[in-house]
Q: What sequence folds into this?
Protein backbone atom coordinates (compact mmCIF):
# COMPACT_ATOMS: atom_id res chain seq x y z
CA UNK A 1 0.00 0.00 0.00
CA UNK A 2 2.73 2.43 0.95
CA UNK A 3 4.56 1.54 -2.26
CA UNK A 4 1.42 2.38 -4.20
CA UNK A 5 1.07 5.65 -2.36
CA UNK A 6 4.60 6.67 -3.42
CA UNK A 7 3.66 6.07 -7.02
CA UNK A 8 0.34 7.87 -6.71
CA UNK A 9 1.61 10.92 -4.89
CA UNK A 10 4.01 12.90 -7.01
CA UNK A 11 7.20 14.20 -5.48
CA UNK A 12 9.20 17.42 -5.59
CA UNK A 13 7.79 20.37 -7.48
CA UNK A 14 4.74 18.49 -8.71
CA UNK A 15 3.80 17.69 -5.12
CA UNK A 16 4.24 21.30 -4.04
CA UNK A 17 2.17 22.52 -7.01
CA UNK A 18 -0.61 20.07 -6.14
CA UNK A 19 -0.93 21.16 -2.55
CA UNK A 20 -0.58 24.85 -3.43
CA UNK A 21 -3.44 24.42 -5.91
CA UNK A 22 -5.54 22.70 -3.26
CA UNK A 23 -5.08 25.47 -0.71
CA UNK A 24 -5.74 28.14 -3.30
CA UNK A 25 -9.01 26.42 -4.25
CA UNK A 26 -10.09 26.26 -0.63
CA UNK A 27 -9.22 29.95 -0.21
CA UNK A 28 -11.17 30.72 -3.39
CA UNK A 29 -14.18 28.81 -2.03
CA UNK A 30 -14.21 30.31 1.42
CA UNK A 31 -12.68 33.81 1.30
CA UNK A 32 -15.73 35.43 -0.38
CA UNK A 33 -18.12 33.73 2.04
CA UNK A 34 -16.07 34.73 5.09
CA UNK A 35 -15.71 38.34 3.90
CA UNK A 36 -19.45 38.51 3.27
CA UNK A 37 -20.14 37.38 6.83
CA UNK A 38 -17.58 39.83 8.28
CA UNK A 39 -19.01 42.77 6.33
CA UNK A 40 -22.52 41.97 7.56
CA UNK A 41 -21.33 43.12 10.99
CA UNK A 42 -19.97 46.37 9.56
CA UNK A 43 -21.43 49.49 11.15
CA UNK A 44 -20.64 51.60 8.09
CA UNK A 45 -23.32 52.07 5.45
CA UNK A 46 -20.62 51.90 2.74
CA UNK A 47 -19.98 48.23 2.28
CA UNK A 48 -16.27 48.35 1.42
CA UNK A 49 -15.22 50.54 4.34
CA UNK A 50 -14.95 49.09 7.83
CA UNK A 51 -16.67 51.24 10.44
CA UNK A 52 -16.55 49.05 13.51
CA UNK A 53 -18.57 45.97 14.41
CA UNK A 54 -22.28 46.10 15.12
CA UNK A 55 -25.50 44.16 14.83
CA UNK A 56 -27.17 47.17 13.24
CA UNK A 57 -28.05 45.48 9.95
CA UNK A 58 -29.44 42.42 11.67
CA UNK A 59 -31.71 44.64 13.76
CA UNK A 60 -32.73 46.45 10.62
CA UNK A 61 -33.41 43.16 8.87
CA UNK A 62 -35.74 41.98 11.62
CA UNK A 63 -37.64 45.26 11.39
CA UNK A 64 -37.90 45.11 7.61
CA UNK A 65 -41.44 44.13 6.57
CA UNK A 66 -40.73 42.98 2.98
CA UNK A 67 -37.83 40.80 4.18
CA UNK A 68 -39.92 39.15 6.89
CA UNK A 69 -42.86 38.76 4.53
CA UNK A 70 -40.81 37.07 1.83
CA UNK A 71 -39.05 34.92 4.43
CA UNK A 72 -42.44 33.68 5.60
CA UNK A 73 -43.43 32.93 1.99
CA UNK A 74 -40.15 31.09 1.45
CA UNK A 75 -40.72 28.87 4.44
CA UNK A 76 -44.34 28.09 3.50
CA UNK A 77 -43.37 27.21 -0.07
CA UNK A 78 -40.31 25.19 1.01
CA UNK A 79 -42.14 23.06 3.56
CA UNK A 80 -45.27 22.51 1.46
CA UNK A 81 -43.33 21.59 -1.66
CA UNK A 82 -40.93 19.36 0.30
CA UNK A 83 -43.73 17.36 1.90
CA UNK A 84 -45.67 16.81 -1.33
CA UNK A 85 -42.63 16.11 -3.48
CA UNK A 86 -41.14 13.69 -0.93
CA UNK A 87 -44.30 11.58 -0.96
CA UNK A 88 -44.75 11.69 -4.74
CA UNK A 89 -41.03 11.24 -5.39
CA UNK A 90 -40.79 8.20 -3.12
CA UNK A 91 -43.73 6.53 -4.87
CA UNK A 92 -42.14 7.35 -8.20
CA UNK A 93 -38.82 5.82 -7.14
CA UNK A 94 -40.53 2.65 -5.89
CA UNK A 95 -42.52 2.28 -9.11
CA UNK A 96 -39.49 2.77 -11.34
CA UNK A 97 -37.08 0.60 -9.35
CA UNK A 98 -39.31 -2.27 -8.23
CA UNK A 99 -41.91 -2.75 -10.97
CA UNK A 100 -42.13 -3.38 -14.70
CA UNK A 101 -45.17 -1.74 -16.23
CA UNK A 102 -46.39 -0.30 -19.50
CA UNK A 103 -44.99 3.16 -20.16
CA UNK A 104 -42.17 2.73 -17.64
CA UNK A 105 -39.48 3.87 -20.08
CA UNK A 106 -41.33 7.06 -20.97
CA UNK A 107 -42.00 7.82 -17.32
CA UNK A 108 -38.32 7.25 -16.54
CA UNK A 109 -37.38 9.88 -19.11
CA UNK A 110 -40.04 12.30 -17.86
CA UNK A 111 -38.63 12.05 -14.32
CA UNK A 112 -35.11 12.99 -15.46
CA UNK A 113 -36.21 15.96 -17.59
CA UNK A 114 -36.79 18.54 -14.81
CA UNK A 115 -33.25 17.90 -13.55
CA UNK A 116 -31.62 18.41 -16.94
CA UNK A 117 -33.71 21.27 -18.26
CA UNK A 118 -32.19 24.77 -17.85
CA UNK A 119 -33.98 26.72 -15.14
CA UNK A 120 -34.73 29.54 -17.57
CA UNK A 121 -36.63 27.13 -19.84
CA UNK A 122 -38.58 25.73 -16.92
CA UNK A 123 -39.38 29.26 -15.74
CA UNK A 124 -40.78 30.09 -19.18
CA UNK A 125 -42.77 26.85 -19.24
CA UNK A 126 -44.43 27.50 -15.90
CA UNK A 127 -45.24 31.12 -16.74
CA UNK A 128 -46.92 30.20 -20.03
CA UNK A 129 -48.72 27.29 -18.42
CA UNK A 130 -50.21 29.36 -15.61
CA UNK A 131 -51.11 32.15 -18.05
CA UNK A 132 -52.95 29.62 -20.26
CA UNK A 133 -54.58 27.88 -17.31
CA UNK A 134 -55.75 31.19 -15.90
CA UNK A 135 -57.32 32.37 -19.15
CA UNK A 136 -58.86 28.93 -19.73
CA UNK A 137 -60.39 29.01 -16.28
CA UNK A 138 -61.71 32.50 -16.88
CA UNK A 139 -63.18 31.49 -20.23
CA UNK A 140 -64.95 28.41 -18.90
CA UNK A 141 -65.91 29.28 -15.35
CA UNK A 142 -65.35 32.98 -15.01
CA UNK A 143 -62.95 32.30 -12.15
CA UNK A 144 -59.38 33.59 -12.07
CA UNK A 145 -56.25 32.96 -10.09
CA UNK A 146 -53.17 35.11 -9.83
CA UNK A 147 -49.50 34.29 -9.58
CA UNK A 148 -48.38 33.85 -5.99
CA UNK A 149 -47.52 31.35 -3.32
CA UNK A 150 -49.77 28.73 -4.92
CA UNK A 151 -48.14 28.85 -8.33
CA UNK A 152 -44.66 28.99 -6.75
CA UNK A 153 -45.38 25.88 -4.68
CA UNK A 154 -46.80 23.98 -7.66
CA UNK A 155 -43.67 24.79 -9.70
CA UNK A 156 -41.28 23.82 -6.90
CA UNK A 157 -43.02 20.47 -6.47
CA UNK A 158 -42.58 19.84 -10.20
CA UNK A 159 -38.78 19.94 -10.05
CA UNK A 160 -38.44 18.54 -6.54
CA UNK A 161 -40.30 15.30 -7.35
CA UNK A 162 -37.48 14.42 -9.73
CA UNK A 163 -34.67 15.16 -7.29
CA UNK A 164 -36.36 13.16 -4.51
CA UNK A 165 -37.10 10.28 -6.89
CA UNK A 166 -33.46 10.12 -8.06
CA UNK A 167 -32.05 10.13 -4.51
CA UNK A 168 -34.52 7.53 -3.19
CA UNK A 169 -34.01 5.39 -6.27
CA UNK A 170 -30.26 5.33 -5.75
CA UNK A 171 -30.90 4.08 -2.22
CA UNK A 172 -33.37 1.44 -3.43
CA UNK A 173 -30.93 0.24 -6.09
CA UNK A 174 -28.28 -0.31 -3.43
CA UNK A 175 -30.71 -2.34 -1.30
CA UNK A 176 -30.73 -6.12 -1.36
CA UNK A 177 -34.13 -7.22 -2.79
CA UNK A 178 -33.74 -10.63 -1.13
CA UNK A 179 -34.56 -8.92 2.18
CA UNK A 180 -38.05 -8.20 0.91
CA UNK A 181 -38.30 -11.76 -0.41
CA UNK A 182 -37.23 -13.09 3.00
CA UNK A 183 -39.97 -11.03 4.63
CA UNK A 184 -42.49 -12.46 2.15
CA UNK A 185 -41.22 -16.00 2.90
CA UNK A 186 -41.87 -15.33 6.56
CA UNK A 187 -45.51 -14.63 5.72
CA UNK A 188 -45.31 -10.88 5.83
CA UNK A 189 -48.00 -9.32 3.69
CA UNK A 190 -47.02 -6.88 0.98
CA UNK A 191 -47.83 -3.86 3.14
CA UNK A 192 -46.23 -5.44 6.20
CA UNK A 193 -43.01 -6.20 4.29
CA UNK A 194 -42.94 -2.66 2.95
CA UNK A 195 -43.55 -1.02 6.29
CA UNK A 196 -41.23 -3.22 8.34
CA UNK A 197 -38.42 -3.92 5.87
CA UNK A 198 -38.31 -1.65 2.82
CA UNK A 199 -39.34 1.63 4.41
CA UNK A 200 -36.81 1.59 7.28
CA UNK A 201 -34.05 0.65 4.84
CA UNK A 202 -34.77 3.45 2.38
CA UNK A 203 -35.54 6.02 5.10
CA UNK A 204 -32.09 7.68 4.88
CA UNK A 205 -32.69 8.08 1.14
CA UNK A 206 -36.11 9.61 1.72
CA UNK A 207 -34.71 11.95 4.36
CA UNK A 208 -31.79 12.88 2.12
CA UNK A 209 -34.17 13.56 -0.76
CA UNK A 210 -36.40 15.68 1.47
CA UNK A 211 -33.43 17.75 2.66
CA UNK A 212 -32.29 18.23 -0.93
CA UNK A 213 -35.81 19.35 -1.88
CA UNK A 214 -35.90 21.77 1.05
CA UNK A 215 -32.53 23.26 0.10
CA UNK A 216 -33.42 23.58 -3.57
CA UNK A 217 -36.74 25.20 -2.76
CA UNK A 218 -35.16 27.68 -0.35
CA UNK A 219 -32.49 28.62 -2.93
CA UNK A 220 -34.51 28.77 -6.15
CA UNK A 221 -34.58 32.17 -7.88
CA UNK A 222 -35.23 31.97 -11.61
CA UNK A 223 -38.39 29.86 -11.81
CA UNK A 224 -39.79 31.53 -8.70
CA UNK A 225 -39.30 35.04 -10.06
CA UNK A 226 -41.33 34.07 -13.13
CA UNK A 227 -44.30 32.61 -11.26
CA UNK A 228 -44.45 34.95 -8.28
CA UNK A 229 -46.86 37.83 -8.12
CA UNK A 230 -46.57 41.31 -6.68
CA UNK A 231 -46.22 41.12 -2.92
CA UNK A 232 -45.84 37.35 -2.92
CA UNK A 233 -42.18 36.75 -3.61
CA UNK A 234 -39.81 34.44 -1.76
CA UNK A 235 -36.72 35.65 0.07
CA UNK A 236 -34.19 34.80 -2.70
CA UNK A 237 -36.33 36.57 -5.31
CA UNK A 238 -36.64 39.64 -3.09
CA UNK A 239 -32.90 39.63 -2.43
CA UNK A 240 -32.19 39.17 -6.14
CA UNK A 241 -34.19 42.31 -6.84
CA UNK A 242 -32.22 44.23 -4.21
CA UNK A 243 -28.87 42.89 -5.44
CA UNK A 244 -29.54 44.08 -8.97
CA UNK A 245 -29.82 47.61 -7.64
CA UNK A 246 -26.55 47.45 -5.75
CA UNK A 247 -24.66 46.24 -2.72
CA UNK A 248 -25.96 47.22 0.73
CA UNK A 249 -24.99 46.07 4.23
CA UNK A 250 -28.59 44.94 4.73
CA UNK A 251 -28.22 42.41 1.89
CA UNK A 252 -25.02 41.20 3.56
CA UNK A 253 -26.96 40.47 6.75
CA UNK A 254 -29.82 38.70 4.93
CA UNK A 255 -27.27 36.76 2.84
CA UNK A 256 -25.42 35.65 5.95
CA UNK A 257 -28.64 34.30 7.43
CA UNK A 258 -29.45 32.44 4.20
CA UNK A 259 -25.91 31.07 4.07
CA UNK A 260 -26.09 29.82 7.64
CA UNK A 261 -29.44 28.16 6.94
CA UNK A 262 -28.08 26.24 3.95
CA UNK A 263 -24.92 25.25 5.83
CA UNK A 264 -27.00 23.87 8.68
CA UNK A 265 -29.00 21.86 6.14
CA UNK A 266 -25.79 20.46 4.58
CA UNK A 267 -24.33 19.45 7.91
CA UNK A 268 -27.62 17.85 8.88
CA UNK A 269 -27.83 15.87 5.63
CA UNK A 270 -24.19 14.77 5.96
CA UNK A 271 -24.99 13.52 9.46
CA UNK A 272 -28.01 11.61 8.14
CA UNK A 273 -25.85 10.01 5.45
CA UNK A 274 -23.13 9.08 7.92
CA UNK A 275 -25.59 7.46 10.30
CA UNK A 276 -27.03 5.36 7.51
CA UNK A 277 -23.65 3.93 6.51
CA UNK B 1 -55.79 -32.17 -31.36
CA UNK B 2 -52.08 -32.32 -30.98
CA UNK B 3 -52.50 -33.51 -27.42
CA UNK B 4 -54.16 -36.78 -28.48
CA UNK B 5 -51.05 -37.84 -30.35
CA UNK B 6 -48.77 -37.16 -27.38
CA UNK B 7 -48.18 -39.62 -24.56
CA UNK B 8 -50.47 -38.82 -21.59
CA UNK B 9 -47.52 -37.83 -19.34
CA UNK B 10 -46.23 -35.31 -21.81
CA UNK B 11 -49.70 -33.84 -22.23
CA UNK B 12 -50.03 -33.38 -18.47
CA UNK B 13 -46.70 -31.75 -18.33
CA UNK B 14 -47.58 -29.37 -21.10
CA UNK B 15 -50.84 -28.52 -19.45
CA UNK B 16 -48.99 -27.92 -16.19
CA UNK B 17 -46.52 -25.68 -17.95
CA UNK B 18 -49.33 -23.79 -19.60
CA UNK B 19 -51.01 -23.33 -16.23
CA UNK B 20 -47.78 -22.12 -14.67
CA UNK B 21 -47.20 -19.77 -17.55
CA UNK B 22 -50.76 -18.55 -17.15
CA UNK B 23 -50.20 -18.00 -13.45
CA UNK B 24 -46.92 -16.22 -14.07
CA UNK B 25 -48.58 -14.03 -16.61
CA UNK B 26 -51.36 -13.02 -14.29
CA UNK B 27 -48.85 -12.36 -11.52
CA UNK B 28 -46.90 -10.23 -13.97
CA UNK B 29 -50.07 -8.38 -14.91
CA UNK B 30 -50.87 -7.81 -11.24
CA UNK B 31 -47.34 -6.50 -10.60
CA UNK B 32 -47.64 -4.27 -13.64
CA UNK B 33 -50.96 -2.93 -12.32
CA UNK B 34 -49.41 -2.25 -8.92
CA UNK B 35 -46.46 -0.52 -10.61
CA UNK B 36 -48.78 1.72 -12.61
CA UNK B 37 -50.82 2.47 -9.51
CA UNK B 38 -47.67 3.49 -7.67
CA UNK B 39 -46.36 5.55 -10.56
CA UNK B 40 -49.72 7.26 -11.10
CA UNK B 41 -49.49 10.19 -8.64
CA UNK B 42 -46.01 11.25 -9.74
CA UNK B 43 -46.83 10.67 -13.37
CA UNK B 44 -50.06 12.69 -13.26
CA UNK B 45 -48.30 15.53 -11.48
CA UNK B 46 -45.35 15.66 -13.85
CA UNK B 47 -47.61 15.32 -16.86
CA UNK B 48 -49.84 18.18 -15.74
CA UNK B 49 -47.19 20.52 -14.34
CA UNK B 50 -44.21 19.65 -16.50
CA UNK B 51 -44.99 17.85 -19.78
CA UNK B 52 -48.00 20.04 -20.54
CA UNK B 53 -46.11 23.32 -19.87
CA UNK B 54 -43.30 22.07 -22.11
CA UNK B 55 -45.83 21.38 -24.85
CA UNK B 56 -47.30 24.86 -24.42
CA UNK B 57 -43.84 26.44 -24.89
CA UNK B 58 -43.42 24.39 -28.05
CA UNK B 59 -46.82 25.53 -29.36
CA UNK B 60 -46.18 29.18 -28.43
CA UNK B 61 -42.92 29.16 -30.37
CA UNK B 62 -44.98 28.96 -33.57
CA UNK B 63 -47.42 31.71 -32.57
CA UNK B 64 -47.62 35.38 -33.52
CA UNK B 65 -46.92 38.49 -31.52
CA UNK B 66 -49.20 41.48 -31.91
CA UNK B 67 -47.65 44.98 -32.02
CA UNK B 68 -48.82 45.54 -28.44
CA UNK B 69 -47.01 42.45 -27.21
CA UNK B 70 -49.97 40.10 -26.96
CA UNK B 71 -49.46 36.57 -28.18
CA UNK B 72 -51.88 35.53 -30.91
CA UNK B 73 -52.46 31.82 -31.13
CA UNK B 74 -53.21 31.73 -34.85
CA UNK B 75 -51.42 31.98 -38.20
CA UNK B 76 -48.77 29.54 -37.03
CA UNK B 77 -45.36 30.19 -38.53
CA UNK B 78 -41.63 29.61 -38.18
CA UNK B 79 -40.69 33.30 -37.82
CA UNK B 80 -39.37 32.98 -34.29
CA UNK B 81 -37.11 30.14 -35.39
CA UNK B 82 -35.83 32.19 -38.30
CA UNK B 83 -34.97 34.98 -35.91
CA UNK B 84 -32.60 32.64 -34.09
CA UNK B 85 -30.23 33.26 -37.01
CA UNK B 86 -30.18 37.05 -36.53
CA UNK B 87 -26.56 38.17 -36.20
CA UNK B 88 -27.42 39.72 -32.84
CA UNK B 89 -28.83 36.47 -31.47
CA UNK B 90 -25.96 34.45 -32.93
CA UNK B 91 -23.55 36.83 -31.22
CA UNK B 92 -25.21 36.29 -27.83
CA UNK B 93 -25.27 32.53 -28.36
CA UNK B 94 -21.60 32.56 -29.33
CA UNK B 95 -20.72 34.65 -26.27
CA UNK B 96 -22.62 32.23 -24.02
CA UNK B 97 -20.80 29.34 -25.64
CA UNK B 98 -17.37 30.96 -25.24
CA UNK B 99 -18.03 31.90 -21.61
CA UNK B 100 -19.41 28.45 -20.77
CA UNK B 101 -16.54 26.68 -22.55
CA UNK B 102 -13.98 28.96 -20.87
CA UNK B 103 -15.50 28.37 -17.43
CA UNK B 104 -15.51 24.62 -18.12
CA UNK B 105 -11.85 24.67 -19.17
CA UNK B 106 -10.77 26.65 -16.10
CA UNK B 107 -12.79 24.39 -13.81
CA UNK B 108 -11.15 21.33 -15.35
CA UNK B 109 -7.66 22.82 -15.16
CA UNK B 110 -8.06 23.73 -11.49
CA UNK B 111 -10.46 20.96 -10.50
CA UNK B 112 -8.53 17.95 -11.79
CA UNK B 113 -5.37 18.48 -9.70
CA UNK B 114 -7.58 19.45 -6.78
CA UNK B 115 -9.68 16.28 -7.03
CA UNK B 116 -6.47 14.26 -7.49
CA UNK B 117 -5.04 15.84 -4.35
CA UNK B 118 -8.12 14.91 -2.29
CA UNK B 119 -8.38 11.40 -3.74
CA UNK B 120 -4.79 10.59 -2.75
CA UNK B 121 -5.10 11.61 0.92
CA UNK B 122 -5.69 9.15 3.73
CA UNK B 123 -9.36 8.16 4.15
CA UNK B 124 -9.86 10.36 7.20
CA UNK B 125 -8.39 13.52 5.65
CA UNK B 126 -10.26 12.73 2.43
CA UNK B 127 -13.63 12.68 4.22
CA UNK B 128 -12.91 15.99 5.94
CA UNK B 129 -11.76 17.70 2.71
CA UNK B 130 -14.82 16.38 0.87
CA UNK B 131 -17.11 17.97 3.45
CA UNK B 132 -15.29 21.26 2.81
CA UNK B 133 -16.14 20.92 -0.90
CA UNK B 134 -19.75 19.92 -0.21
CA UNK B 135 -20.49 23.03 1.88
CA UNK B 136 -20.09 25.58 -0.96
CA UNK B 137 -21.73 23.06 -3.30
CA UNK B 138 -24.92 23.19 -1.25
CA UNK B 139 -24.80 26.82 -0.17
CA UNK B 140 -27.13 29.37 -1.65
CA UNK B 141 -25.99 30.12 -5.21
CA UNK B 142 -27.43 33.64 -5.27
CA UNK B 143 -25.65 34.59 -2.07
CA UNK B 144 -22.33 33.16 -3.27
CA UNK B 145 -22.62 35.15 -6.50
CA UNK B 146 -23.59 38.26 -4.57
CA UNK B 147 -20.42 37.92 -2.49
CA UNK B 148 -18.40 38.48 -5.66
CA UNK B 149 -20.40 41.56 -6.54
CA UNK B 150 -19.34 42.97 -3.20
CA UNK B 151 -15.70 41.88 -3.64
CA UNK B 152 -15.29 43.15 -7.20
CA UNK B 153 -17.06 46.50 -6.85
CA UNK B 154 -15.05 49.69 -7.36
CA UNK B 155 -13.26 50.40 -4.09
CA UNK B 156 -14.17 46.89 -2.91
CA UNK B 157 -11.80 44.41 -1.26
CA UNK B 158 -10.25 43.09 -4.50
CA UNK B 159 -9.54 46.59 -5.73
CA UNK B 160 -8.10 47.54 -2.34
CA UNK B 161 -5.76 44.57 -2.46
CA UNK B 162 -4.49 45.36 -5.96
CA UNK B 163 -4.03 48.99 -5.00
CA UNK B 164 -2.10 47.96 -1.92
CA UNK B 165 0.12 45.77 -4.07
CA UNK B 166 0.80 48.75 -6.32
CA UNK B 167 -1.12 47.29 -9.24
CA UNK B 168 -3.58 50.15 -9.25
CA UNK B 169 -7.34 50.18 -8.96
CA UNK B 170 -9.21 47.34 -10.66
CA UNK B 171 -12.67 47.72 -12.12
CA UNK B 172 -13.73 44.18 -12.81
CA UNK B 173 -17.44 44.37 -11.96
CA UNK B 174 -19.75 44.27 -15.01
CA UNK B 175 -17.01 42.83 -17.24
CA UNK B 176 -16.64 39.47 -18.95
CA UNK B 177 -13.94 38.60 -16.43
CA UNK B 178 -16.39 39.10 -13.56
CA UNK B 179 -18.95 36.80 -15.22
CA UNK B 180 -16.23 34.21 -15.81
CA UNK B 181 -15.14 34.37 -12.15
CA UNK B 182 -18.77 34.01 -11.09
CA UNK B 183 -19.35 30.97 -13.31
CA UNK B 184 -16.17 29.24 -12.15
CA UNK B 185 -16.98 30.03 -8.52
CA UNK B 186 -20.54 28.81 -8.88
CA UNK B 187 -19.91 25.57 -10.73
CA UNK B 188 -16.40 24.42 -9.72
CA UNK B 189 -17.82 21.93 -7.18
CA UNK B 190 -19.85 20.35 -10.04
CA UNK B 191 -16.51 19.59 -11.71
CA UNK B 192 -14.66 18.42 -8.61
CA UNK B 193 -17.19 15.90 -7.32
CA UNK B 194 -17.46 13.62 -10.41
CA UNK B 195 -13.70 13.96 -10.97
CA UNK B 196 -13.06 12.90 -7.41
CA UNK B 197 -15.43 9.95 -7.80
CA UNK B 198 -13.58 8.68 -10.88
CA UNK B 199 -10.04 9.32 -9.59
CA UNK B 200 -10.82 7.61 -6.31
CA UNK B 201 -11.95 4.51 -8.20
CA UNK B 202 -8.70 4.17 -10.17
CA UNK B 203 -6.83 0.95 -9.47
CA UNK B 204 -3.47 2.49 -8.66
CA UNK B 205 -1.62 -0.79 -8.97
CA UNK B 206 -1.95 -0.20 -12.73
CA UNK B 207 -0.02 3.05 -12.32
CA UNK B 208 2.51 1.17 -10.25
CA UNK B 209 2.85 -1.43 -13.00
CA UNK B 210 3.47 1.27 -15.58
CA UNK B 211 6.17 2.78 -13.36
CA UNK B 212 7.76 -0.64 -12.99
CA UNK B 213 7.88 -0.73 -16.77
CA UNK B 214 9.98 2.45 -16.69
CA UNK B 215 7.24 4.95 -17.52
CA UNK B 216 8.01 8.41 -16.18
CA UNK B 217 5.54 10.00 -13.75
CA UNK B 218 4.11 12.09 -16.56
CA UNK B 219 3.89 9.14 -18.95
CA UNK B 220 2.12 7.05 -16.31
CA UNK B 221 -0.40 9.83 -15.81
CA UNK B 222 -0.87 10.46 -19.51
CA UNK B 223 -1.22 6.81 -20.51
CA UNK B 224 -2.87 5.23 -17.44
CA UNK B 225 -4.52 7.61 -14.96
CA UNK B 226 -5.94 10.12 -17.45
CA UNK B 227 -7.66 7.53 -19.72
CA UNK B 228 -9.10 5.78 -16.65
CA UNK B 229 -10.57 9.01 -15.32
CA UNK B 230 -11.90 10.31 -18.62
CA UNK B 231 -15.56 9.48 -17.75
CA UNK B 232 -15.23 11.80 -14.75
CA UNK B 233 -13.73 14.49 -16.98
CA UNK B 234 -16.64 14.24 -19.43
CA UNK B 235 -19.25 14.14 -16.66
CA UNK B 236 -17.77 17.10 -14.79
CA UNK B 237 -17.35 19.15 -17.96
CA UNK B 238 -20.98 18.63 -18.93
CA UNK B 239 -22.21 19.39 -15.41
CA UNK B 240 -20.35 22.72 -15.59
CA UNK B 241 -21.11 23.52 -19.21
CA UNK B 242 -24.90 22.96 -19.07
CA UNK B 243 -25.74 25.44 -16.29
CA UNK B 244 -23.07 27.93 -17.48
CA UNK B 245 -24.50 28.02 -21.00
CA UNK B 246 -28.01 28.81 -19.75
CA UNK B 247 -26.79 31.03 -16.90
CA UNK B 248 -29.05 33.87 -15.89
CA UNK B 249 -28.29 34.84 -12.29
CA UNK B 250 -24.50 35.16 -12.72
CA UNK B 251 -24.42 37.50 -15.75
CA UNK B 252 -27.33 39.44 -14.28
CA UNK B 253 -25.48 40.18 -11.05
CA UNK B 254 -21.86 40.37 -12.20
CA UNK B 255 -22.16 41.26 -15.87
CA UNK B 256 -23.04 44.42 -17.73
CA UNK B 257 -24.95 45.28 -20.87
CA UNK B 258 -22.13 43.93 -23.04
CA UNK B 259 -22.01 40.54 -21.36
CA UNK B 260 -25.62 39.47 -21.99
CA UNK B 261 -25.90 35.69 -22.13
CA UNK B 262 -28.69 33.53 -23.57
CA UNK B 263 -30.42 33.06 -20.22
CA UNK B 264 -30.79 36.80 -19.65
CA UNK B 265 -31.80 37.30 -23.27
CA UNK B 266 -34.62 34.77 -22.92
CA UNK B 267 -35.84 36.38 -19.71
CA UNK B 268 -35.83 39.76 -21.44
CA UNK B 269 -38.17 38.43 -24.13
CA UNK B 270 -40.72 37.66 -21.44
CA UNK B 271 -40.36 40.40 -18.88
CA UNK B 272 -39.42 43.39 -21.04
CA UNK B 273 -39.83 42.85 -24.77
CA UNK B 274 -43.02 40.81 -24.29
CA UNK B 275 -42.16 38.66 -27.27
CA UNK B 276 -43.36 35.30 -26.02
CA UNK B 277 -43.13 33.35 -29.29
CA UNK B 278 -39.48 34.33 -29.78
CA UNK B 279 -38.67 33.66 -26.11
CA UNK B 280 -40.36 30.27 -26.45
CA UNK B 281 -38.36 29.23 -29.50
CA UNK B 282 -35.14 30.31 -27.76
CA UNK B 283 -35.97 28.35 -24.61
CA UNK B 284 -36.98 25.32 -26.60
CA UNK B 285 -33.78 25.25 -28.64
CA UNK B 286 -31.56 25.82 -25.61
CA UNK B 287 -33.35 22.92 -23.91
CA UNK B 288 -32.68 20.64 -26.89
CA UNK B 289 -28.98 21.57 -26.73
CA UNK B 290 -28.89 20.66 -23.03
CA UNK B 291 -30.69 17.38 -23.67
CA UNK B 292 -28.03 16.52 -26.24
CA UNK B 293 -25.31 17.23 -23.69
CA UNK B 294 -27.15 15.26 -21.00
CA UNK B 295 -27.48 12.33 -23.41
CA UNK B 296 -23.69 12.26 -23.77
CA UNK B 297 -23.42 12.48 -19.98
CA UNK B 298 -25.54 9.40 -19.41
CA UNK B 299 -23.78 7.65 -22.29
CA UNK B 300 -20.42 7.89 -20.53
CA UNK B 301 -22.05 6.53 -17.40
CA UNK B 302 -22.16 9.68 -15.33
CA UNK B 303 -24.30 9.30 -12.25
CA UNK B 304 -23.29 12.13 -9.96
CA UNK B 305 -26.07 14.67 -9.69
A:
Amino acid sequence: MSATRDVVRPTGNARRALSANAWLVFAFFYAPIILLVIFSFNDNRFVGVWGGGSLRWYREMFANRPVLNSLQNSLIVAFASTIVSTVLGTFTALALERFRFRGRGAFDGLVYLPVIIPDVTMAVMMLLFFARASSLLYGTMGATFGLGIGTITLSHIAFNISFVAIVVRARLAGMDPSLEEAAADLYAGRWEAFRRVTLPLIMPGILGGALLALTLSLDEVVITSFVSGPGSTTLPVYVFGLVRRGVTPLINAVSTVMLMASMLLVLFSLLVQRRSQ
Amino acid sequence: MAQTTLPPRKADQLEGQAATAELEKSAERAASRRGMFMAAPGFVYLFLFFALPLLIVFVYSFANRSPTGRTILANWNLDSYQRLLDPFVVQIAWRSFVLAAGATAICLLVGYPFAYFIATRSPKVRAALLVLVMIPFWSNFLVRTYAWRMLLGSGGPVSQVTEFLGLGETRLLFTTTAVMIGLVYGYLPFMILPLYASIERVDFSLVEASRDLYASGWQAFRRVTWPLTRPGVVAGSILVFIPSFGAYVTPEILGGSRTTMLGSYIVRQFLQARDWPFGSSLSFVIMLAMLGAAFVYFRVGGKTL
